[in-house]
Write a structure and sequence with these properties.
Blueprint (H helix, E strand, L loop, with lengths): L1 E3 L2 E3 L2 E3 L6 E6 L4 E7 L3 H18 L4 H17 L1 H12 L3 H24 L3 E4 L2 E7 L2 E5 L5 H15 L2 E5 L5 H13 L7 E3 L4 H10 L5 E5 L2 H11 L5 E5 L5 E4 L5 H12 L12 E5 L3 H13 L2 E2 L7 E3 L5 H17 L2 E4 L17 E4 L6 H4 L6 E7 L2 H9 L6 E5 L3 H8 L6 E4 L17 E2 L4 H6 L2 E6 L2
Parallel strand pairs: 1-5, 8-9, 8-11, 9-10, 11-12, 13-14, 13-20, 14-19, 15-16, 18-19, 20-21
Antiparallel strand pairs: 2-3, 4-5, 6-7, 7-23, 12-22, 17-18
The structure holds nicotinamide-adenine-dinucleotide.
């Protein structure tokens, strides 16, 4: 049995003041593997006090010093790549394929932030004035369980680049992953108090971070519901907020696309992180006269996707993170059937032989209408909705007929056509002919998918306050 009884405050792994414990459950087997001790309000206040103290000097460090910290961090994370990947697979059941990619992205993201920092001018001339970019202060970072360390590295490398200090509250379901990443940050030798990690519950640790006037900004990733609670509470102390929230991303297959390439790619994009991804392409929009052809390719593709042990390199869909998440996905599959969508493959219940873990059948509904709940609400599991459209105009209207606007995807034989369609979609990122990541391009949502942007210069500026000095 594992015991994780420490949090990280002021440069040390310490026993928290909080005494509540949280059971560590392996989602592949539903066996208890250990216990974590959770922090409370006092621990959170101690972490904020340490970050405030550290801010006095860290905010004055030079670009060169911050670049040196980031370079060291990057090399430690590279060295611990396997540990970081394996603990993700074990703790929340992310597939090895996905988790290995996330760890690689962490390394790339740090290097991208180093490049951005090198080029960023913290004192610019604008009009007749000097504009100085000053670190915003202590940043409270609140994140979900579905790619925990990926979010930590993106946000913390940006905070370090800006000269901010931080208190991180990961999900209580990410305690084991947090331990490994905290060790990496500790080894990077950042001054005491610059980075603090407090494991704990949202309505205790998260709430205190949001309330505490010692925190100047909240960088949140999570559900739209919690994002709104945080934004409302944060305004009392006028905290800056960036919110990376949910999504229901459309994937438009234009009528000239090669279906044999585009449909398997669409299914990969829908089942990203076993469907537990904010940017998953969960609405597949296809020309109505090609629906039968799409259905056949989609069904054949899913039958070749392995649902199973996330440790296996060929597994495409692992277990859901928890019993609660499993049940949520089951409920949506039932809702889809009740709403009259056609179940093409998958369905309710667990796949044969995988009864112990939180496994869901890789599922596709077809003939889905965009006003159905399965097309409008975030399911966060391997459930894809295929929605037929009449023409390009109709496809764009359906794509935008959602309260979300995080990501979108377009496939076409003509790049020009794809760009033209992309220009009409209300989403923070649009990928053409596949799924890709760019550590320097902005990431964030339109509409209910959030406020603000991460990555690159856009992300860095969210951690800075511009100050104009006029003569
Ligand atoms: P969640 O919103 O339930 O929790 C996210 C974090 O907020 C957790 O650490 C939680 O403990 C904390 N929290 C909960 N209540 C709080 C409160 N009252 N005050 C302060 N903090 C509180 O999300 P989840 O279930 O952990 O993750 C899944 C959700 O995250 C999905 O909706 C998904 O789309 C979203 N997400 C978005 C992105 C993005 O970049 N846009 C990325 C990944 C996940």
């Amino acid at each position: 049995m594992k015991t994780l009884d420490k949090i990280y405050i002021n440069g040390e792994f310490v026993i928290p003041h909080g005494t509540a414990t949280f059971d560590l459950i392996n989602p592949t087997t539903n066996q208890k593997t250990g216990e974590a001790t959770l922090g409370d309000e006092i621990d959170t206040q101690n972490a904020i006090a340490a970050a405030r103290d550290a801010f006095k000097t860290f905010s004055k460090t030079t670009k060169a010093e911050r670049i040196a910290y980031l370079e060291k961090l990057g090399s430690i994370i590279s060295r611990r790549e396997k540990d970081l990947t394996n603990i993700m697979v074990e703790e929340y059941g992310g597939t090895f394929q996905f988790c290995a990619m996330v760890t690689q992205n962490m390394i790339n993201d740090i290097h991208a932030m180093i490049d951005v920092l090198k080029d960023f001018d913290f004192a610019q001339t604008v009009g007749n004035s000097k504009v100085y970019f000053q670190p915003v202060g202590v940043v409270g970072i609140i994140i979900p369980w579905n790619m925990s360390n990926g979010f930590i590295v993106t946000k913390l490398s940006t905070a370090i680049a800006a000269g901010c200090t931080v208190v991180v509250k990961p999900s209580e379901m990410s305690t084991q992953q947090t331990q490994v990443i905290a060790e990496c940050f500790h080894e990077a030798g950042l001054p005491k108090g610059v980075i603090n990690f407090v494991n704990g519950l949202g309505d205790i640790v998260g709430k205190e971070i949001t309330r505490n006037p010692g925190v100047s900004k909240i960088a949140f990733t999570g559900s739209t519901t919690v994002g709104k609670i945080i934004a409302k509470a944060a305004v009392d102390s006028m905290k800056r907020v960036t919110l990376e929230l949910g999504g229901k991303s459309p994937n438009i297959i234009l009528d000239d696309a090669n279906l044999n390439e585009a449909i398997p790619m669409a299914i990969f994009a829908a089942y990203l992180n076993s469907g537990q991804a904010c940017a998953a392409a969960t609405r597949l929009l296809v020309p109505e006269n090609k629906l039968e052809e799409v259905n056949a390719i989609a069904k054949a593709t899913v039958q070749n996707i392995k649902v199973g042990d996330p440790k296996d390199a060929d597994t495409g869909v692992g277990p859901m993170v928890s019993k609660k998440q499993y049940q949520r996905v089951q409920d949506y599959i039932r809702i889809g059937i009740e709403e009259g969508a056609t179940l093409l493959v998958g369905g309710e219940g667990k796949p044969q032989g995988l009864e112990d873990g939180n496994f869901v059948k890789a599922t596709i509904f077809t003939n889905v209408k965009n006003n159905m709940r399965i097309a409008q609400e975030e399911i966060f599991g391997p459930v894809l909705s295929i929605i037929p459209y009449k023409n390009e105009e109709d496809a764009i209207a359906i794509a935008n007929d959602t309260s979300y606007g995080l990501a979108a995807y377009v496939s076409s034989a003509s790049k020009e056509r794809a760009y033209h369609v992309a220009s009409q979609i209300d989403a923070g990122r649009v990928c053409i002919n596949g799924i890709s990541h760019d550590s320097k391009a902005p990431f964030g949502g339109f509409k209910q998918s959030g406020i603000g942007r991460e990555y690159g210069i856009f992300g860095l500026e969210e951690y800075l306050e511009p100050k104009a000095v006029l003569e």
